[in-house]
Amino acid sequence: MRALSVWTERVLGHGEDAEAFVAHHWDSRQGLLAVFDGSGGAGSAPAWQAPDRPPHTGAWVGSRVARLATDCWFREVARDGEQPGPESLHGYLQWFLSKAPQRRSKIGGTMRRQLPTTLAGVHYRVLDDWAGVELQPLWAGDSRAYALHPQDGLQVLTRDHTRESDALELLRSDPPMTNLVCADRDFEIATQRLMPFPLPTILVAATDGFFGYVHTPGEFESVLLGTLQKATSEHEWADLLRREVQLYTADDASLALVALGHRDFAELRETYAPRLAQLRNRLDRNRPRALDRTPRPSADGAVAPEDPGDLNARVRAWQDQSWHAYRSSYETYLPAAPEEHA
Q1: Strands (DSSP E) along 152-246, which ranges?
Q2: Which of 71, 162, 299, 306 lies in the 20 to 30 Å Cα band around 111?
Q3: Are 37 and 252 in contact (CB under 8 A)?
Q4: At a CB cut-off of 8 Å and minimum separation 6, what does 189 contact?
Q5: 3 state DSSP class of 262
Q6: Does residue 140 contact residue 161 with C-beta atoms inside 8 Å?
Q7: What SS3 state is found at 48?
Q8: How far apart are CA 255 and CA 238, in angstroms?
Q9: Are 121 and 190 in contact (CB under 8 A)?
Q10: In the predicted structure, residue 66 carries a pLDDT above the cut 80
Q11: CA-CA distances (angstroms) from residue 193 to 5, 85, 122?
Q12: pLDDT at 298
């Protein structure tokens, strides 16, 4: 197996994403990867301050407390050999958040939360003889977990806790979350079980700083695989991912990744090379040049200014076309919406 994590801050020392979590327990062949994105809008009030340092927000504290709680929960799961579940993780999160520093704000409102954060992760257990892997995604909020298959590409394993569920529309808008981890209100840890899931595969957990600032959902997969093909080790892959996301994101960004079923890094890279070629061929079809920052010359050789209305229309048409071709495979394991269970 190969593992890496990436963590970047937009404002040094004040990033509201906690560092990504990756752990593997060799004796029981199980592991966990997870990310945590403090919700700055709902938790913008100061909550904790170190001596001689600026204060940190409730979102900053919440994401880090949730990471600590998740770490302790996984240690108990691995030690005792218990079947992991959302109820026990929920209990750990509630208890740790109840002990964390909080400041009650005088400003109320339905959007206010104490120590609010998203959580998205995947607990996995490798089956005997590496015949497959059992997956259990766990999440609250709008961070996501994925599986990346050599033939089928990136497949989402979680459903955002927002009223809008279409991945392309979520790129075009920023709807409020309907559920997230916090200290002062009830919350849900959603889950599903997938078994057996085929190997080889790459498991990914990411906050929206990674996938929320691309032009179409397939471009996030292109970022993952494009940097993989340029790397010679998982350490270099992580560094390339960090550099790439810092070019396009407008947010803190964190990512955890585990690759299972590959003998070494060279085989991992080789396994996914055909998928990247296929994906880029699809994405480049009718892609507006302005998205690549390539000037378009006019008939006399001068650079012709792009008409904003025409460009927006062509970008939307390309996004719709790209999403239509990509969506079916991407949503293979998308959990049903709550109303679909009724």
Answers
A1: 153-156, 190-191, 194-197, 201-206
A2: 71
A3: yes
A4: 86, 87, 89, 90, 93, 119, 138, 139, 140, 181
A5: coil
A6: yes
A7: strand
A8: 9
A9: no
A10: yes
A11: 24, 10, 10
A12: 40
pTM of the full predicted structure?
0.91
Return d(Cα 335, Cα 158) in angstroms, integer.
Answer: 6
pLDDT-derived band at 100, boundaries 50, 70, 90: confident
Most confident of 46-60, 70-84, 93-107: 70-84
Q: Mutual orientation of helices 217-230 and 234-248 as an angle, nearest 10°?
A: 140
Structure tokens at 218: 């397939």
| Cα–Cα distance list, 206 to 17, 181, 199, 265, 273 (Å) | 10, 16, 21, 21, 22
User: How many angstroms separate the CA atoms of 71 and 21, rounded?
Assistant: 8
Q: pLDDT at position 342, please?
A: 41
Closest CA to 36 of 46, 21, 55: 21
Under CATH, which number does the domain 2-289+313-336 receive?
Answer: 3.60.40.10
Residue 149 CA to residue 271 CA, distance in Å, equals: 10
CA distance 75 to 31: 10
The one-letter code for the residue type at 183 is A
What tokens were used for 109?
A: 């409102």
β-pair type (133-140, 46-48): unpaired
For the chain, strand residue ranges (E) read: 2-8, 21-25, 30-35, 46-48, 56-57, 119-126, 133-140, 144-149, 153-156, 190-191, 194-197, 201-206, 253-260
Token pair belonging to 243 = 């550099």
Q: Are strands 144-149 and 21-25 parallel, antiparallel or unpaired?
A: unpaired
| Cis bond upstream, residue 46 (ω within 30) | no
Q: Are strands 119-126 and 30-35 parallel, antiparallel or unpaired?
A: antiparallel
